[in-house]
Structures are given as C-alpha cells and as structure tokens.
Amino acid sequence: MNVRRSAAVLAAVAVLGAAAPAAADSSPSPPPQALPSALYGDTDPQYDGVWRQSLALLAQHAAGAEPPKAAVGWLTGQQCADGSFAPFRADPSAACDAKTMVDTNQTAAAVQALAALGGHDAVTEKAVGWLKSVQNEDGGWGYTAGGPSDTNSTSVVVGALAAVGEKPGEVRKGGRSPYDALLGLELPCTGEGAGAFAYQPEKDGSLTANTDATAAGVLGALGKGLLVEPGKGDGPGSCVKATTPEQAAANGAAHLADALAAKGYLLASTPGAEDQPDFGNTADAVVALAAQGDTAQAEKSYAWLEKNAGDWAAQSGPGAYAQLILASHATGADPRDFGGTDLVKQLRAAGPAAPGKTTEATEKAEDEKDSDSPFGVWWFVGVCLVAGIGIGFLISNRTKRQQP
Asked: DSSP letter string over 55-120?
C-alpha cells in the first residue's frame, strides 16, 4: 500500500486508466490556499486525501499522540451515505452520486484509522457494510467496486475487517474468502519471484512478482492491517507450496527478506530511469517482515531508512512520515528519534496547527457522530472545509510496477 509514492494518486491514476469506474467528480480541484485546514498536507487531495489522512491519524495513534479533533472530524465527514469513501469531496454536505469516485482503498484505510481511535462505530460499521457489498466472487476486492481483485486492495480490506473485529476468513462471496483470493495471487515456489505476490494476473493469466504487492500480501495473509506489533518467528524460511494463508505470508516474507538482504532497501523500477531506492515500499516491507516475525531483517532495513529516508519524507509529506512511524512502531523503535528527527512532530506540523484547533461546524459534526446520528455524515463540515487535492501500502496507490 504505497501511499507513499504520491500514493493514492498513482494508484488512482492506474486504476482510472484500466477500470472505467463512474466518472470522477467534475468539480475542479481547488487552489492550494483553499484546502481544508483540518487536512494533512498541502498538496492536491483529489486522489489520496482520505488515504493520507487515515495514515496520519493511525500513525499518531501508534505513537501515543492524540490526533486533533478537527482532523478526525474531517475524515468522518468524507463518508458517503452508503458507507463508502472517495479520496476527496470538496463539499461533504452534498450527497454522493454516480460521479463520486469512491474506492475500496480509501474506505478500508479510513476504517482502520477510525477503529483504532475508537468511538466511531456507526461510521466504521457502515463502511464495512459497503466493503462487503462490493466483494468479488473470487473473495477479493479491486480498487473500485467491481474491478478485478488485486493483492493490495484485498489486503487493505482484510486489515479493515480485522480492525473492527471481523474474521476475514468468514467474509465470503461465492463461497470464497479474501484468503482464497490472496492464495490465487501468490507465485509458486519455483522460478523467478518464488513466493512473492503479484498485483494482479497479467492478460495471459501469468503472475509477475511485485514487491509492493508482496508487502501488502504478507499483511493480508496474516489477517493484519497497517498498524502491527512485531510478530514472533525464526526468520525467513524456504518457500513451501502455500495451502494456507499463513504459509503464503511466510513465503512472501521470505521473498522480501531476500530482496532486502543485499542493500537493505527495495528498488523503484521506473522504465527508462536509473534505479533508485523505493523508500515507501521499503517501509512497507519492514512492517510486513516485523508482522511475520523476521525482526532481524526488519530492524536492519529500518536502520537503513533512519540514515537515508529523511529527505524523502520531508519532500513527500504526511503520508511518508506516517509510513515511517508505522515502520518504527512495528520494529519497537522510537519515532521521535528517527536519525535525530522527531517524525511525530513533523507529521503533526503538516496538519491542524494545534491539537485543539477545530471549528464550530466540525465540533457539531463530531458530536453527532459520537451520538450515532444518521445525519452526522452530512451536517459535518460546513463552509470551513472547502476544496482541494495520492498510491500506496497504502493508500493504496497501486502502480502496477513489476519488481523482482
């Protein structure tokens, strides 16, 4: 879930080019100065607003920092009446319609964040209901409702289900669970990319290893979300034919550990460009390895991030800071001392200026949410939240990058 890579944007752009969902909201993107004050980041949220907001809230929770109420209120106010979330709605008081570009990734990320914070059961229950309604016959989910299942989307939805206490293996469509879908997206133990996950099958049905999808697939197969505690294990083992999600996760983690062993980081393969480190994908891999129990390699790669990812995070914004905080949490490190940088401070500086900063309209909306009012979603934001600007585990933001 690489939101980090300009996250949702890339993901959304890739999806839009392939899936033909309902047309995007025709309202123009607002200029930067018109962005809602409760939104994290100062870039256009058109494709990743909810995703990066969710990561920012989840990361602060992981670090023991209470997110500003205004930021939480902005997120809950983005929900549509059917429970889904779009990346960004400039006017949350207007009802969603066929042109509102909702997707599974934003919805599942919001569920994970709000479930972790607590007190938002009405929002998360409605969102999970929508996610269940758009599950595919193979048991998985695509980025958009009805789109072909992919590893990243299926995994972030698994994380959402687990976050609200659901058992992902019991959420079935056509007799198949999300674990069935993930098992069908993992490469065999022979040949190139052994044990890795593919993003989606190629046109001929073949599977190509993708490290971004593999990091997501490990978490999904373990039934975990973006916020994880270090697991217990003996490190990477040999690839064994996966007949269970647990074995699929072990195979995927072994593939990641092997890919990270040489340099400590994963490469971003951009056609025609010199290979560069993929900081976001490396952070995701750290989380996945820690969840699986390969703490040794997770800690080594986290140490590499500490030395090298500072400039990337500063340039990329809140989603990147959140990713690094989640990697820090997964390895038991201190996000307030990330190579001398306080990641939590940097993240909070990209959101509402002060923890208590809010508006009357947002306070009212939050109160309505807390009382489970069915109208809270619409009476939420008010004139203060105006308009404005995503790939990923995240958000996910899937670019179909082929990586060995």
From this structure: HHHHHHHHTT-PPPHHHHHHHHTTB-TTS-B-S--S-TTSPP-TTS--BHHHHHHHHHHHHHH-S-
366 vs 56, 77, 261, 356, CA distance in Å? 18, 9, 46, 13
Rounded (10°) angle between helices 104-117 and 151-163: 30
pLDDT (average), residues 64-80: 97
**Cα–Cα dist 7/392, whole Å:** 4
- Burial of 206: CB neighbours in 10 Å, binned 0-12, 13-18, 19+: exposed
**Residues 289, 162: Cα–Cα separation, whole Å:** 19
Q: How far apart are CA 164 and CA 71, in angstroms?
A: 21
- The Cβ of residue 292 has, within 10 Å, a number of other Cβ atoms equal to 30
153 near 140, Cβ under 8 Å?
A: yes
Beta-bridge partners for 173: 176
Closest CA relative to residue 369, chosen from 361, 360, 377: 377
Q: Give the count of beta carbons closer than 10 Å to the beta carbon of residue 101.
A: 23
Instruction: List, for residues 273-324, the tens digit of each pLDDT value.
Output: 678 999 999 999 999 999 999 999 999 999 999 999 999 999 999 999 999 9
End-to-end alpha-carbon separation of the chain, Å?
Answer: 17
pLDDT band of residue 353 (cuts 50, 70, 90) is low
Residues 6+ apart with CB under 8 A from 272: none
Q: Model-level pTM? A: 0.82
The two tokens of residue 269 are: 């393969």
* Three-state SS at 153: helix
Q: Is the dihedral of CA 203, 205, 209, 210 positive or negative?
A: positive
Task: Please state the length of the chain.
Answer: 404
Residue 56 CB-density burial (10 A; 0-12 exposed, 13-18 middle, 19+ buried): buried
Q: Can you give the pLDDT at residue 270? A: 72
